[in-house]
Amino acid sequence: MTDGSGRTAFPPAPTGLGALSATEIMAGYRRKAFTPRDVMDDTIAALETANETCNAVVTPMYEQARAEADRLTREMRAGEAKGPLAGVPVTIKDLVFVAGVPAYAGSPMNTSFVPEADAAVVSSLKAAGAIITCKTTTCESGYKLTADSPVTGITRNPWNPGRTSGGSSGGAAVGVAAGCGPIAIGTDGVGSIRVPSSFCGVFGLKPTFGLVPRSPGFSPPSWASLAHTGPITRTVADAALTLEVIAGYDLRDAASLPVSARRFDTDAGRLDGIRIGASADLGYAAVSPDVCAAFGKALAILDSCGAQVTMDGPGLDPDILEHTLKPIAFTEQAAAVASKSATALASSEADYRNVIGAGRRYTGTDYIEASYRRGQSRNAFVKLFERVDVLVTPTVAVTAFEAGRIGVDTVDGSKVDPHLGWSPFTWPINLAGLPAATLPCGFDRDGMPIGLQIIAPWLDEPTIFRIAAAFEAAQPWAKFWPQLALP
């Protein structure tokens, strides 16, 4: 893995404690090398610096975070602190409830909304000893794949502030990429964890649908049958540790899966015996040359790790975006604001109102027919996983584009849908409810990160972690930092 200029030498690492991984922070506490207050002071300083340039923070929770860090510092000195994430900073996307903290969700309709209860994922993190530092930016109700909103403005990429962070979990990915704490919680309805993680050069995991409960989540519940909650981190081990904490059954979420707690092995090893299917375009996607080149190099790495790599894919309908995703996603988005008047929606951005209008034009029959086609695409993955253990693709067909744009309408000379056509590899996985992760696999000619997506059968996160850990050992992406994070 090179830095986009052909160089393989690693830049100097950031000096702040907020740039350490969660496992490094916990090890430092055990050695008494520093305290939670030390970590929190450095993390907050990094957040303030990154926010000035990238606009990643919606609601700072710094005073509460410092107070919690002081409490944990006292407990650690007394030998009383407990929890697998005790003293580790975490950020929360602004679609996810934190009790007593505003949840704007990027929407002018929610500027006075303050939830009374924590989302289940937040409760789990607090119980594990994690310290929440802030709420991070998202687009309006998570409807698009950038984090720009009429509430917070444009969220920018730490590798190049002239480029987008991606979204809708853009602030979450920016914070991790810029060394502002090791863990962020994002949500993913059509790629909203994986797109910004790919654009910002970090690891992002969309778990199996229902593995991490969303309750009470964000209200109204947009992307109801598509949205997942998961971690964004710099390392595979941190993502696995976070998933161990936040996965679990919650009766309040009808989609929540009654699965037992699990531990995930992230020790890097050979991939002998792993059958990897690979597709550079899923049979229909336009992809930029730089992304194709990085994908080919990633396949060679996987092969060198012992995996059996073959070109294979699920054989999806080339019109899956128009025939399947849009009738479902746009209808669910429109249903989420069905009680809102035209006056209430007037302060929303025009493009969001257009999506709502499109969703309202679909009929119930359209939704049911799309759901039937969704079942067909799910069955295509069932058949694929009889032949291979996982599928790998590029994460996004392009690298981060100009900040402030919704998307691009041309990829490698081909016209694409400006909302979703440049991310053709992410939303089919939401339709199927499969687990998928993105990991950095290279840079384009401008030095912008490129992601590799690993997709596994339902509830097979362990295989994702196994492959990602092997790739991480062979190509240690966490040693590359954006200039914004460097001393």
Automatic annotation (TrEMBL):
<dbReference type="InterPro" id="IPR000120">
    <property type="entry name" value="Amidase"/>
</dbReference>
<feature type="domain" description="Amidase">
    <location>
        <begin position="41"/>
        <end position="464"/>
    </location>
</feature>
<dbReference type="Pfam" id="PF01425">
    <property type="entry name" value="Amidase"/>
</dbReference>
<dbReference type="InterPro" id="IPR023631">
    <property type="entry name" value="Amidase_dom"/>
</dbReference>
<protein>
    <submittedName>
        <fullName>Amidase</fullName>
    </submittedName>
</protein>
<comment type="similarity">
    <text>Belongs to the amidase family.</text>
</comment>
<dbReference type="InterPro" id="IPR036928">
    <property type="entry name" value="AS_sf"/>
</dbReference>
